[in-house]
Amino acid sequence: MMRNDPIKHVFIWPAVLVVLAISIFPLIYSFTTSFLSYRLIPPIPPRVVWFGNYVTLLQEPRFWNAILTTTLIAFIAVGLQYVIGFGVALALNARVPGERLFRVALLLPMLLAPVAVALVARMIFNPTMGPLNQLLSTFGLANLPFLTNGHWALGCIIAVEIWQWTPFVILMMLAGLQTLPEDVYEAAELENASAWQQFWGITFPMMLPISAAVVFIRLIESYKIMDTVFVMTGGGPGVDTETLTLFAYQEGFKKFNLGYTSALSFLFLIAITIIGVTYLALLRPHLEKRR
Amino acid sequence: MLRRTFLMLTTSLAVACAASQANAACSPDYSGVTLTVASQTGPYIASALKLGADEWTKKTCGKVNVVEFPWSELYPKIVTSLTASDATFDLVSFAPAWLPDFVPYLSEMPKAMQSGKDWDDVEPAYRERLMVWEGKIYSQSMDGDVHTYTYRTDLFSDPKEKDAFKAKYGYDLAPPKTWKQYLDIAEFFQRPDKGLWGTAEAFRRGGQQFWFFFSHAAAYTNNPNYPGAMFFDPETMDAQINNPGWVKGLEEYIRASKLGPPNALNFSFGEVNAAVAGGQVAESIGWGDTGVIAADPKQSKISGKVGSAVLPGSDEIWNAKTKKWDKFPAVLPAPFMAFGGWQIAVPKVGKHQEAAWDFVKTLTSPEVSGQAAITGGTGVNPYRKSHTANLELWSKIFSPQEAKEYLGAQADSINGKNVALDMRLPGYFSYTEVVEIELGKALAGQTTPQAALDAVAKEWNRLTDEFGRAKQLAAYRAAMGLPPKN
Fold it and tell me: Å from A182 to nearest chain B CA?
């Protein structure tokens, strides 16, 4: 087939049209909706408000609270996932006894549906019937307000996120560790480099590209957190644990405020893009040094 | 030839007989019809629908498929299906507060169902008010909901407790007439070291919380001198939720949260029932399920010791018109029709309209609904006169004294002179969401009751303007049973 053969259009255009129909069109529709005041319940005819929804959102304390909450969850959870995950991956790579069993067992949380994990967590943190508070009562300690105090509730959500998603970090980091060349370590051994020196001088720098990718993926995913918060706290108490996606869900699927929700989604997209671009810009000098 | 003709005749006769027998068994015959009903996740309501479905299947040979959604998902699922004119559901079960949002998509109840013995048997509060929207009937109540008071008779009749209570508070220990007395009782029985706490109410966001708060506030805001002004001024549609009556209600609701079991702030109605049935609390308020569950020896530690009464009231009620407290000669209870009981309706786009309304008829018949009302876990509370009049029916689960108090509380509440109706407005979720958020803050001590309610009032007024004040005012007046404003 020649490069200029018109038959190429038969193969290309269906794919282009499918992509347009299922991804670009909804995006454009949603973008145009974000400039409308458009409610399904109670039914109000759509009215163009241009940047009205965006301005209202940017002046809305609840929006900024949701950004802060999501950022806290994402950065703390991903930070700890990375530290714990890297540590466990190093241990598994050192071929500890029972390594295969650990490898399978540690992956299990990641395979569970977040809703199921959140339901189990809600039972564990239940104020009266939950085993945690029962344990505290057994030792004569006061019950803790796990899901009824904003700070505690946020801590519980972060703990669940770490428990569920650290295995992903372990999996990726372990795969990375297994590709590192042995001869570099042998040379370091000959130079009498300590394990600590080997880690900071060889392992960490060589793992930087994969670390950057893992943290990036987890960060973006964490910003999309919804099911865990929805099941565990519903965003409460008040709006203390309300994340951006939950806020969008409440506006879109409870209040059917479609224009406002579309604007919220685009602000969310902008926020994620800024975070992603900043993160990559900060890492670029370090990554380029490795090339 | 003759033999062959005889055989054919016999076969035809047999077929005809069998067919007529089948038709007789299925009356009306809905063989081959399968109705799909949207319900909240069981057992509450879904099990009542299944009970009705079994009866309907026996009667008509039709089938019913009950599709369950978690409470928080039910509204979006129904709205999505209705607004898309999607015939997914032949019937939808829902809260009366959602009716204004659903009305454009629902079919009217057949006129034949709007008369007769079974129709008149439905309590007027439902038949004439909650089932009506702009003069038309679009739905049928399948549950009666009014908040009542539940208490432990063993504690209240204990002479030692009675003496100690009187010595401390200066009046007799008895079901409270006022909310102050309710809090005194809760405080008196607050004994964490003995595993006993004062009261249990729902305080969790998304856990039926705001209805409990409304019950407190109804006593101070549902003024018979200015009817229908509990939530909004029926003349101007200005939000009333931050007036002194509401603030007093919220202060007492917050106080009640501190007189409950540990972490009561995480209680939804399910946990309230568990606390009452577990004998953890001396008193509580809530729907009629509490009394039924607490009376059931299989589910309860206090079976045989369950007392019921009408909600406490007040002799001072805020007047939204004069902006002053009205003093009444005696305490006036304002039983709050929280939620208002589940309703069932038939979407216009449903393919089996006739069969669907026939199912509604069976489901809500005095016999089937009466059975559901005395079955713990169905979530069905009395909404027919026959439900509260039939003591024999209730003797299956209650002792005679328990039955007398329970049915008395239900009937007196529904037929109370100053019964407070729940809010029903287009955009209901937008209005209640902000209440939940601000209640959460006030309960956690992050804001004062006045500041929390000021924030709610501000948002309610903004929403009313956005949705159209005149339209919302007309809807509100209709919901409160007031005539249209000229």
Answer: 55
Residue B395: inside a domain: no
Q: Does A115 touch chain B (CB under 8 A)?
A: no
- Give residue B433's pLDDT: 92
> What CATH number corresponds to the domain at position B276?
3.40.190.10
Split at pLDDT 50, 70, 90, the class of B1 is: very low
Residues of B in contact with A250 (CB under 8 A): 433
Number of alpha carbons in the 13 Å side-chain half-sphere of residue A64: 6
Specify if A258 maps to a domain: yes
Q: What is the ipTM of this complex?
A: 0.78
Kindly list the residues from chain B whose CB atom is less than 8 angstroms away from the CB atom of residue A241: none
Q: Which residues of A touch B206 (CB under 8 A)?
A: 234, 236
CA A144 to CA B173: how far, in whole Å?
A: 33
Structure-block tokens of residue A173: 């980091």
Cβ contact (<8 Å) for A239 and B265?
Answer: no
Among B273, B284, B266, which Cα is nearest to B444's?
A: B266
Three-state DSSP at A44 gives strand
**Cross-chain residue pair B266–A127, CB shorter than 8 Å:** yes
Q: Measured between alpha carbons, how far is residue B101 from residues A44, B3, B206, B339, B465 in Å?
A: 12, 68, 20, 15, 17
Domain that holds residue B108: 31-141+343-378
Residues 6+ apart with CB under 8 A from B195: B280
- What residues contact B349, with CB distance under 8 A and at least 6 apart? B82, B85, B86, B87, B105
Query: Based on the domain organization, do B368 and B329 belong to the same domain?
Result: no
Model confidence pLDDT, tens digit, residues B243-282: 999 999 999 999 999 999 887 888 889 889 999 999 999 9
- CB nearest B262 (choices: A41, A143, A147): A143
Q: Rounded to whole angstroms, how far apart are CA atoms B232 and B240?
A: 5
CATH number at residue A203: 1.10.3720.10
Would strands B281-286 and B197-200 be described as parallel, antiparallel, or unpaired? parallel
For chain B, the domain total comes to 2
Q: pLDDT per position in chain A (291 positions), as tens?
A: 567 888 889 999 999 999 888 888 889 999 999 999 998 888 888 999 999 999 999 999 999 999 999 999 999 999 999 999 999 999 999 877 888 888 888 889 999 999 999 999 999 998 767 899 889 888 888 888 888 888 999 999 999 999 999 999 999 999 999 999 999 999 999 999 999 999 999 999 999 999 999 999 999 999 999 999 999 988 888 899 999 999 999 999 888 999 999 999 999 999 999 999 999 999 888 878 766
Quick one: B248 and B333 in the same domain?
yes
Nearest to B313 by CA among B203, B216, B431, B440: B216
Residue A243 lies in a domain: yes
* Interchain contact, A239 vs B437, CB within 8 Å: yes
Inside any domain, residue A230: yes
User: What's the number of domains chain A is made of?
Assistant: 1
Decide if A56 touches B, using CB distance below 8 A.
no
Judge whether B189 and B158 are in contact, CB under 8 Å.
no
Residue A37 lies in a domain: no
Average pLDDT across chain B, whole number: 92
**Residue span of the structural domain in which A236 resides:** 61-290
A110: nearest Cα among A46, A66, A174, A57: A174
Q: Smallest CA–CA separation between B39 and chain A, in Å?
A: 17
Return the closest-CA partner of residue B439 out of B206, B103, B276. Answer: B206
User: DSSP of B186-252, one letter per residue?
Assistant: HHHT-BGGGTBEEEE---STTTTHHHHHHHHHHHHH--TTSTT-SSB-TTT--B-TTSHHHHHHHHH
CB of A161 closer than 8 Å to CB of A228: yes
Give the mean model confidence (pLDDT) for residues B110-126: 95
**Furthest C-alpha separation in chain A:** 82
